[in-house]
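Database export, one record per block. Field names are fixed; values are copied verbatim from the stored entry.
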Amino acid sequence: MSALANRRVLVVEDEFLISAMLCDMLIAASAEVVGPAANVSAALKLIEDNPVDGAILDMNLNGQWIDPVAEALARRAIPFVFTTGYGTNVRSQKFGARTIEKPYTLECVEAELALAIEDSARARSD
């Protein structure tokens, strides 16, 4: 059974084909997809309106950094990972978030998000 089974995962990605592929990957891992959102305001609305167990965030949405969404998730103690073509950088360090380099596989997405969720649960229990 997948580590993401029955988890509600927010997807924030501005490229339609990548978003569709990512949603398909999550569904294959038995996760429930929240979204997807293609911009910051849509992502913030989804966070307000839906319970979320974790999130996958494209770091740059059509030239806008994802920081407001990462900050909203961090305030709610919702774990997330960044996806990017930029590699680990100041943003991933700022938020202490795992980073998945594009292009990625289902195994990579599943493993990194599951680790982020475990890290978050461990931090809450300390």
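Remark 1: The beta strands are 8-12, 32-37, 54-58, 60-61, 64-65, 80-84, 98-101.
Remark 2: The CA atoms of residues 11 and 35 lie 6 Å apart.
End of record.
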